[in-house]
Amino acid sequence: MPSLKALKNRIVSVKNTRKITKAMQMVAAAKLRRAQEAAEAGRPYAERMNGVMASLAAGVSGSGSAPRLLAGNGNDQTHLLVVMTAERGLCGGFNSSIAKLARQRAAELVAQGKTVKILTVGKKGREQLRRDWSHAFVGHVDLSEVKRIGYANAAAIARQVTASFEAGEADVVTIFYARFQSVISQIPTAQQIIPAKFEEAASTNALYDYEPSEEAILADLLPRNVATQIFTALLENGASEQGARMSAMDNATRNAGDMINKLTVQFNRTRQAAITTELIEIIAGAEAL
Amino acid sequence: MAGTLQFDLVSPERRLASVQANEVQIPGAEGDLTAMAGHAPTITTLRPGILKAVSAAGTKAYAVTGGFAEISASSVSVLAERAVPVEELNAQLMDQLIAEASDVSGIEPANAAKILSDLQAMKAAAGF
């Protein structure tokens, strides 16, 4: 049985931990609100982009002259996996679940005899994948200095990805991120961005005039579309990270509370036992006289 | 023409405008065009320039750096890569935009020179 002093120290230390987790939870809640706003602000752009791209793609894909970013380069030998995770830990299973999905996919692809390359965005994913897949790493994007993710960050990643596609270093590009559903649920998602895939051709097929030509517009828009998808994924990831951290820290706070209660009970019992022992000693001494 | 059209200006980071406008002047890649109600459905890419929306409340101008516009008979949606209300524009921001454009220029040298000169023209026109 630990001494009274040791128990007291323990309680103080757990109380301090609880203060920290509580603070982190509140910070995450504030950041979550901002991240969610950013994700919502980006949604109209992404939706319209997707709509226009879908109708453009439907028009061109049949013609055989589709750009390579849309149709692919005819191979699917080399897969580039872009794994987007957080720069910081202490956010529950957020980073692990993304890394796990990426690891699974990479293993499947290797089993099919494909070549896998991995580009990591965010420090945590890199750390988790390092053990098994460090031979597949082709690069890392560090966003730890970035306070607020902007379109420019996404565009830079998109340029890197597109360049490696154009250079023939990758045939299929898939991004991994966590889609934000609610504070308690973030869904790790794999999304193929090159060759571009669209949910369905838009049915509102108004006959558009294209200026310049349809192909030129498509060639201009496809790289933008890659950047937009990456940007959307980064924003979703940002919201998911804060959501995951918030619920993880909420749990931690509650656990710390439980622990304090348990320790306090133990502390009181120990104190009572000490008092009882003393009393018994005194009474026994008195009787002996 | 009395009709108005729904004008939306969105950038990846935020929605800048969503109003009823009488006419929208767009800096298209192949020349400026003005969209009014009843315009033939058109999709055009943008070059860097000033986009103006004329509505009952007055004229709002935005500096855009690229993107595309989707015009239909009753609406105009402009998806700009960067869009800044002209009031917020200043020499520093223009220089930043130009710096960004020159940074990308490694990718498509043919277009980069044009984009850069468009931006510089825009800067001159804005009087900085």
TrEMBL record, chain A:
Coiled-coil stretches: none
Pfam families the UniProt entry points to: ATP-synt
Keywords: ATP synthesis, Cell membrane, CF(1), Hydrogen ion transport, Ion transport, Membrane, Transport
Main location: membrane
Record-linked CDD domains: F1-ATPase_gamma
Record membrane topology: Peripheral membrane protein
Superkingdom field: Bacteria
Subcellular location per the Swiss-Prot or TrEMBL entry: Cell membrane; Membrane
Biological role: Produces ATP from ADP in the presence of a proton gradient across the membrane. The gamma chain is believed to be important in regulating ATPase activity and the flow of protons through the CF(0) complex.
Descriptive protein name: ATP synthase gamma chain
Annotated source species: Pseudogemmobacter lacusdianii
UniProtKB/TrEMBL annotation, chain B:
Matches recorded under InterPro entries: ATP_synth_F1_dsu/esu, ATP_synth_F1_dsu/esu_N, ATPsynth_dsu/esu_N
Subunit annotation: F-type ATPases have 2 components, CF(1) - the catalytic core - and CF(0) - the membrane proton channel. CF(1) has five subunits: alpha(3), beta(3), gamma(1), delta(1), epsilon(1). CF(0) has three main subunits: a, b and c.
Gene expressing this chain: atpC
Function: Produces ATP from ADP in the presence of a proton gradient across the membrane.
Protein name (Swiss-Prot/TrEMBL): ATP synthase epsilon chain
Residues annotated as domain ATP synthase F1 complex delta/epsilon subunit N-terminal: 5-83
Alphabetized Pfam families for the sequence: ATP-synt_DE_N (PF02823)
Origin: domain of life: Bacteria
Similarity comment: family membership: Belongs to the ATPase epsilon chain family.
Principal location: membrane
Membrane topology term: Peripheral membrane protein
Locations listed in the record: Cell membrane; Endomembrane system
Keywords, sorted A to Z: ATP synthesis, Cell membrane, CF(1), Hydrogen ion transport, Ion transport, Membrane, Transport
